[in-house]
């Protein structure tokens, strides 16, 4: 093993990191999927019992049937009596069940499934009679009703819009319809009851075209199809044995070259996926295949079955040189090609054919299969006794794993022919066409093994294939249900696949299959653009999956599109992005959310880091202070100390002092407050606090001397209490010591003496010196305490402006009248008149009225 000896096993394993990744993270799982090659190349036709093991020659080609899924749906009657439409490229399946009403109250049921049969939507059909279902290029469901109205639903059964195919269609009703895809988008073609065709080539920009009449058409045509030729959509119509092509302006008769003369009617037709080829089957059982422009015949095969088939579809790989079509009858499927022989498959259940770019999907009530021509690379490697470079390389790798000397022999044979690069290429290409992950890995390991002996083999093809297969295995998974082939995937492009995953709300998978080297910001923005029109999207769920996949920065970018802060913050905390979480909580304006983040940070961070983070967020700091005021006083003090906030520390000590029962402790705290206020250069607060300390000491001394409970009361209440118990000198001492304003002291003493009803002391107080508050308050206080006699003593001392009010307060109407007339005040005279009653002296009232009139003339 000279060649193999040049490479150690460790070196070879290092060449294969991408292969192992095929089965990681759930990508590469093959759920309910298997493959069976059912035909093979031979020199003569050999007929066997028809089944999965049939081998029949079809001119140098192999045909294989791959089971994609055992369907997850539970259809009691299979697809019988169902209107079925399946989207291409492994798209969803729509079923309209119960179209034949068995009772007046019964309604059809419209159901949407993935290609693996998992339900996506289901709802009762409450609109008109449906003639056809179909899918748009963006996986929207079209439901064409017999009145020409087309209803559009999304993948999950949500109604989007509707449009009409015109008045003529509405009046004459829909006889038949076809939904097709063209370079312009999704189109709808309708045959009306008037036997006229109406065409819309793009449902997103509807421009209805009424095509010319078909000459001699007396009833429904035997078959028809839509073609796309020369950037124009046309209709090919078969009227018995005649064929016509309808375009915008003309109806042109055409004749398929070399069509069997035995045919008297064309009963079915189908167009290839690319619209380049056409297949016809006649009532004589002959299948004609040729170009869609009807200028070239490729093949004609006699099926020997004259019953009209249910469906036909092309089964041809891109770039294949061999034509082949699939024809289906009840219980029978025929594959026809260039040779005169056919391949037969028995069908156990009602089935439908779904044309694809590189084959035909067969869907029944229980299974989903793919029928296709075996790709060239797979045929070269796996056919019996193959000596192709890829086959030899695969055998060399198998022998190497067995540590057999034959590996060296196979490698020498390949290298002697200078075909090692071709062998690696074949293995890589074949891996892309295989559906089983184990087969893929076997081929890729062989390719990697071969690369070890090449010094200049470009790695791009190998790396790209590994990436593609990870994506394909992920979307083929039973739970996703998009059975794309590699050929379809390349035609569709990665971006379109991501769009479809997003449309299906498979956001984590959409992120996972994003293979381009783009920044997290670009990816996040692309996701938001695709979801812009989708309602109820939770970006936090998408971000969670990104984070779980190790894409933390992408998760953060995705969260920027999440409008609900309550969904953003928990994930940011989980990702240890505490500052960002706090900022988002503050931006939300939700105080509860801010408290949640702050409490989380308090438990997660050490005290110093926690305080430093709060210093950078004033709103959070303020809320935390509020919390500490009620719950954690000591923490609040630490916060103020950390920030050197002497003002708040002073306030803290003042508030704390009121909770102390011992006077010494209270005064000590107040002294601390004074010190902090001076540090904060707040002299007013410092002086006020010092006054509070003096008052407390005064109260304690007086309490000890007189036995009156005074400690803790405010200055004014203390003075009031002293006055009420007759300690007038002590009250006056406070008045002087604390520089209480004169007016305030007089009011306090006035009210205290009146409350005590010490009228003698009140009179002495009034005569002690001129009252700074006047004497009307004396009158009013006496009246308030129901002592009119004492009140009258002060009426004479009241200023002229207040005389009327004072006299009226004591009930002296005549005195009030004299004062009002003397002041000649119309308003005061009116006030006195309003207080006069029927018992008032008539002459006084007249006098007041005259005085009022005189005052009014001024």
Model description:
By secondary structure, the protein is an alpha+beta fold. Helices cover 44% and strands 19% of the residues. The strands form seven sheets. The chain has a five-stranded antiparallel sheet with strand order 1-2-29-28-27, with no helix packed on it. Strands 3-4-5-6 form a four-stranded antiparallel sheet, with no helix packed on it. It has a four-stranded antiparallel sheet with strand order 7-8-9-10, with no helix packed on it. Helix 21 (618-631) packs antiparallel against helix 22, helix 24 (663-679) packs antiparallel against helix 25 and helix 28 runs parallel beside helix 30 (776-784). The longest helix is centred in the last third of the chain and has 24 residues, at 683-706. The chain is elongated. It starts with a helix and ends with a helix. Mean pLDDT is 80; it is low at 1-18 and 23-59.
Topology:
Blueprint: H1 2-5, H2 9-14, H3 17-20, E1 34-37, E2 63-70, E3 83-86, E4 93-97, E5 109-113, E6 119-124, E7 130-135, E8 141-145, E9 149-153, E10 159-164, H4 167-172, E11 174-182, E12 185-192, E13 197-200, E14 209-210, E15 223-229, E16 232-239, E17 242-246, E18 251-254, E19 266-271, E20 277-282, E21 286-291, E22 297-302, E23 311-314, E24 325-329, E25 332-336, E26 342-346, E27 351-356, E28 359-364, E29 367-373, H5 376-382, H6 389-401, H7 406-416, H8 420-433, H9 437-451, H10 460-476, H11 486-492, H12 494-503, H13 507-512, H14 520-530, H15 539-548, H16 552-559, H17 565-574, H18 578-588, H19 591-604, H20 607-615, H21 618-631, H22 633-642, H23 646-657, H24 663-679, H25 683-706, H26 715-724, H27 728-737, H28 742-756, H29 759-768, H30 776-784, H31 788-792, H32 800-809, H33 813-823, H34 826-835, H35 842-857
Antiparallel strand pairs: 1-2, 2-29, 3-4, 4-5, 5-6, 7-8, 8-9, 9-10, 11-12, 12-13, 13-14, 15-16, 16-17, 17-18, 19-20, 20-21, 21-22, 23-24, 24-25, 25-26, 27-28, 28-29
